Amino acid sequence: MTSNPYTEAGVDTAAGDLAVELMKSAVRRTHGPEVLGGVGGFAGLFDASTLRSYGRPLLATSTDGVGTKVAIAQAIDKHDTIGLDLVGMVVDDIVVVGAKPLFMTDYIACGKVYPERIADIVRGIARGCAETGTALVGGETAEHPGLLGLNDYDVAGAATGVVEASRILGAERVGDGDVVLALASSGLHSNGYSLVRHIVARGGIQYAHTAEDFGTTWGETLLEPTRLYTSPLLRLIAQLGDSARGPFSAVHSLSHVTGGGIAANLARVLPQGSWVEVERSTWSPPPVFRVLADLGDLSLESTEGTWNLGIGFLAVVDAQKADAAISALAQDGIAAWQVGVVHTGTRPAGEFEQGAKGVDGGAVRLVGTYGDSAAPDHGAK
Q1: Burial code of 359-381, b = ≥16 C-beta within 10 A, e = fewer?
Q2: Which one of 83, 111, 263, 296 is most buried, by most CB atoms within 10 A?
Q3: Per-residue pLDDT, 381
Q4: Whole-number Å distance between alpha carbons of 61 and 105
């Protein structure tokens, strides 16, 4: 039998084929009639004629990864939730403008293809896509021996969605007196894990150790998957109906709280000249943040630019519809509460964060003291 020089170089194409076979059924479950060609083509096909019902369809796109959270998955050999994190980081950016996700592709780079591991990752991606109404139309698994360790991998993805031009959400919709609502996170989501890993390593903790504060291992606690907001938010946008100020929802802008924290991400979706003071006393950061901060000898305030501290999304809504929004989100299993009000008048003295990531938006700062840890924990709901 002739040897395969590519296999001898460390690339196992047969293992890659097996991984595809193991994941195919999960991927197919995300396909509706708009997806053509099935699994395994050079390119994924999506029937764009489904967009004919739009007057002026705008395509929205986003790409992201999961970051160093994958190192914890690798450390405890648990890979079935990382895909949910990837979908959350990519697709939940699209809903910020009010767009409905259409399709997504993924990319996995690894040192060695272990078929069941790759299939676990992709099954998680497919589960997240199914929960958000997104078709998983393609992907790539690349084996990089010599560049990545045998058990190392990284994941990334890209998605495309659509929104009617007259219904797009953003800072231009926001006005004086609008209310800022916080939507509870499920935990750390997928940001700030370099700090998490630094704290855990410095504390001499192994991810397999039981975390007495949580009743699980440290690894399982830290791998709590990112909450997916897309479907509940799309339902909320539709349910609140038209605002008195124009043909769009009473949800005026949305912010995904990822890298940069609460203030910086909210500032990106506020108009120039506006400002918001986010009142810390309105919520109690969940235990995972408090325990990590204590272990790292940090104040919660010092981590505000790194962790979400219990707020995964922010919604700026018409004040008259705020209670209705909170109620609707609760019915979808997401705790929400008011944290601030948008102002366009003279800004108080003191430091504010103004815009972020190249966006010259509004100004935001967090004020007050966090609610007591014994108080109701929004992030736990």
Answers
A1: bebbbbbbeeebbeeeeebbbee
A2: 83
A3: 41
A4: 11
- Cα separation of 293 and 254, whole Å? 28
Backbone angles phi, psi at 232, to 5 degrees: -60, -35
At residue 379, the pLDDT reads: 45
Cα 249 to the chain's mean position, in Å?
A: 22
Query: Taking the CA atoms of the chain, what radius of gyration do you get in angstroms?
Result: 22
Cα 374 from Cα 279, distance rounded (Å): 18
The whole-number mean pLDDT for each consecutive block of 10 residues of the chain, a chain of 381 residues, reads 51 56 63 73 82 94 95 95 96 96 94 89 93 91 89 94 94 96 97 96 93 90 97 94 61 94 95 96 96 96 96 97 96 97 92 76 94 56 41
- Going along the chain from its start, the domains and CATH numbers come out as 11-167 (3.30.1330.10), 171-380 (3.90.650.10)
Say what the pLDDT of residue 358 is: 66
Run of H or E including 57: strand 57-65
- CA–CA dist 146, 111 (Å, integer): 7
Q: What are the angstrom distances between the C-alpha of 264 and each of 94, 112, 235, 267, 268? A: 18, 38, 26, 5, 7
Rounded to whole angstroms, the Cα distance separating 233 from 254 reads 9
In 3-state terms, what secondary structure has residue 264?
Answer: helix
